[in-house]
Amino acid sequence: MSDAIIVARHLSHTYQSGPLQKAALIDVSLEIERGSCVAIIGFNGSGKTTLVQHFNGLLRPSEGTIIVDGIDVGAGNVDLRALRQRVGMLFQFPEGQLFGRTVFADISFGPRRMNLSRREIRTRVLEALEAVGLPHHEYAWRSPFDLSGGQMRRVALAGVLAMRPSILVLDEPTVGLDASGREEFYSYLGRIRREQGVTIVLVSHDMAEVSSLADQLFVMYEGRQVMEGSPRTIFAQGEQLRQWKLAPPPLSELLALLRRRGLAIPSDTFTLDEAFSVLQHSAQKSL
Amino acid sequence: MSKPSLIDIQHISYAYPASKGKKGETQPVAALREVNLQVRQGEYLVVLGHNGSGKSTLARHCNALLLPDDGRVLVSGLDTRDTSKQRTIRERVGIIFQNPDNQIIATVVEDDVAWALAVRGLPAAVIRERVDAAMAAVGITQLRQLPPHKLSGGQRQRVAIAGMLALRPQCIIADEATAMLDPLSRQEITLLLHQLNQEHGLTIIQVTHLLEEAALAQRVAVMEQGRIVLEGPPATIFADLERLRALKLAIPDPVELADRLRRAGMMLSPTAVTVEAIAEEIIP
């Protein structure tokens, strides 16, 4: 019944440099639902970036298979061009990849290479700008280098969106942005997902940050997938997360401390509202 | 109680020259307006503010990287505008920045820590002793022979801090030094700064946009549009969450939760701003 857009089966990847081998990905199996938003979480070197680089064929599996939107990435005759149009990828610090003289020129670079009509290119660029909250009449003809860091990052995102991908992979998309820049970025991402039905894959080492957006989290550690589940079930793990060098969100930490002090708090308490009502209730009982 | 000011910032204003306007015209952008701040020897001060509030500009005035247009900055009595004193000032007050890679030079950790000492022509034995002490203080002794690119972001930030410590400064300014790190390394670096403050009596100025990093400070100054708009111990600053939200600062969930419980009638001390302290208040 499920409609998986990405399916990995026993996927392994070994980097080879001279005589040295390094297993970066070990026997990973996962499915990502079409139209969902998932996050791949892990400490530095856990293999999360290696994993998503298989999604658009930047890397090929050493062992196992990976099927992305019907395309077998490991196949010898794989059409990488088609694959990369379907899988848009935004790397870390994408503002470093802007190069156009104007915002319009930068965003239209991808569509222009897809042999589209000028009219179609224009439509796509304007739509993409709209989607990331930069009105075209104000931004299209400015130099991307005069924008703030958060705006530059949104221009980079628009450049990927203009290719109309069915999957959007974002590697640490908000590192270096402040709280408001981050919230802004996520709100546009949420809107793109709702309005365009794009499947979104986030890569992050900060689970608290992505939990509001993602339906499903995959936790990676030392090349293996060690856990999979909703943010709610994964945050309930508390101490276990520290073993994988991940910081539990501050609220989960507080609840864990309270449990250790003998307060009965259901293990799936997750949001601020839930914590509030549980604590208010228990306080009334103890009075 | 009245320790002398290590850094005495007196009514400084500063505008960045020639920021490019839309059509190439240049107009100065006021980054600091009439800022007054005294930092005592041995203090742990956190300067909070969102991007563009002026907090980094202020930090750069503390060791003469920037010089005020108006007013003056004294570092243990030395005026930062006096070019003959700037070298001394920068030895007393060091800054570490957001990206450790921008200040790592050498190919091996211990060489990098020794760099500034070697440049100053200190005797080899002194360099050895200071480098060892600095690496021990930040916990990177076991990494001494590694090339920096093999280290994690948090470890590289430690290397940058050690390089500064080797100069035996009186004050370290951490300018968004945790912004590029993962959450665990972020907590570790903040912890390290506190440790250096308590065990070595180092004055620390931590510049950040994260409220949770201010929880353990002795004093917090909040900046907005080039001015200090709030100042006091964390408990006072954290008491008005609405104000902090208006200043575009994200409120940590546990602090928000404690605030809501307090308003619902629970007796929680407003001085509890860390996760541990809040838990202690809820269940004594």
Describe the protein.
The complex is a heterodimer of chains A (287) and B (284). In chain A, the strands form two sheets. Chain A has a six-stranded mixed β-sheet. Chain A has a four-stranded antiparallel β-sheet with strand order 2-1-4-5, with no helix packed on it. Chain A has twelve helices and ten strands. The longest helix of chain A is centred in the middle third of the chain and has 18 residues, at 179-196. With 287 residues, chain A is an alpha/beta fold. In chain A, helix 3 crosses helix 4 (118-131) and helix 3 packs parallel to helix 6 (149-161). Chain A has helices at residues 48-52, 80-86, 103-112, 118-131, 136-139, 149-161, 179-196, 207-210, 231-235, 239-243, 250-260, 272-286; strands at 4-17, 20-33, 37-42, 63-68, 71-72, 87-90, 167-171, 199-204, 216-221, 224-229. Chain A has one domain (4-248): 3-Layer(aba) Sandwich (Rossmann fold). Chain A starts with a strand and ends with a helix. In chain A, strand 7 (167-171), helix 7 and strand 8 (199-204) form a beta-alpha-beta unit. With 284 residues, chain B is of the alpha/beta class. Chain B has a domain at 42-63 and 78-233: P-loop containing nucleotide triphosphate hydrolases (Rossmann fold, 3-Layer(aba) Sandwich). In chain B, 35% of the residues lie in helices and 25% in strands. Chain B contains ten helices and ten strands. Chain B has helices at 55-61, 86-92, 109-119, 124-138, 153-165, 183-200, 234-237, 241-246, 253-263, 275-282; strands at residues 5-20, 26-40, 44-48, 70-75, 78-79, 93-96, 171-175, 203-208, 219-224, 227-232. The longest helix of chain B has 18 residues, at 183-200. At the A-B interface, helix 7, helix 11 and helix 12 of A face helix 6, helix 9 and helix 10 of B.
| Low confidence ranges of chain A | none
Written as H for each helix and E for each strand, in order along the chain, the element string of chain A is: EEEHEEHEHHHHEHEHEEHHHH
State the distance separating the first and last CA atoms of chain A: 51 Å
As a percent range, the share of strand residues of chain A is 15-25%
CATH topology of chain A: Rossmann fold
Largest interface: A-B, 36 and 34 residues
User: What is the chains' assembly state?
Assistant: heterodimer
